[in-house]
Amino acid sequence: MKHKACELVHTRNYFVEHFICKHLTKTCVWIATSCNRSMSETILSVSGLEKYYGTFHALKGLDLEVKRGEIFGLLGPNGAGKTTMIRILVGLIKPNKGTVRYFDKIDLKDLNDALPRIGSIIEEPRFYPYLSGKLNLQVSARYYPKGITKQRITDLIELVGLTGRESDRVSTYSQGMRQRLGIAQAMLNDPEIIILDEPTNGLDPKGIIELRQLIIRLKEEFGKTVILSSHILSEVEQMADSMAIINKGVCVSQGNVSELLSKNSVSVSLETDDLAASKVMIEAMGYSVTQDQKAINFNAELDAIPNVVSKLTAADHKIFRLDHRRKLEDYFLKLTAA
After folding, report:
1. pTM for this prediction
2. Domains, the chain
3. What is the C-alpha separation between 154 and 152, in angstroms, rounded?
């Protein structure tokens, strides 16, 4: 039975309720995870999406599915249809055919019911350059009918790492700072889904790292679902839980990043007691091998690796390390080759 001194703390972003009961010097914490907020829940589904621009067929029956609480990477070469699809998702353009469903119940004809639960940056964030970052957020906050508190704006400025610069004009901000301010803007109404279109465009390495860390925090600390399109494959590989690759208006691959990259041909890095001799032996098996100071490297089918290891050990080669992975770059190029 709940003690009268118990304090109920509800943390919406984690979809978890903490009941903190204080009785004398003892503290009991009970955590109940909401059943209807399952991380396996489909938060967005797209089916048979088609879009024409005159005679140009931009999307050709595109399908994809995004789960709640994941970072979802949207990859594709220029002109593949990524931005077209994102514009459809937020209601900027209408598809010629197909369905989009948010939260397993809201489709495009009722998109206005979903938009308050979605934050987005399409192509690049736009601000009044001669207003401060804080004033820009205050101006944007006026468009939300429920109102955004001053404390909410202060908290978001801290979240995106702009504390101390919030009173400076946006015209003095770097591109990375503007992108982070854009994420603060997209987060004003505490959305469940955040859609970012090419968020790392124009950023230097430091800006890319800062933005990557922020996006991961949105997922891990705030329970947000983040959908991001990018042409920087390494960033998607480091951040995303799942991904879809779009080519010529069609989704040619979708799934968990780790699982997709572990299939078929993989890049193998092998360290032995005699690199030169091991290199010769592996080349004799028909593989193209490169060697650096620490390891030999080659590509092989995943199920062929045990055979390579068996032959090396049978020849008394000592194996100190073996790593294998499928590079996203190789996978991407294979699927998007003309």
Report:
1. 0.74
2. 7-37 (no CATH), 42-260 (3.40.50.300), 262-336 (3.30.70.980)
3. 5
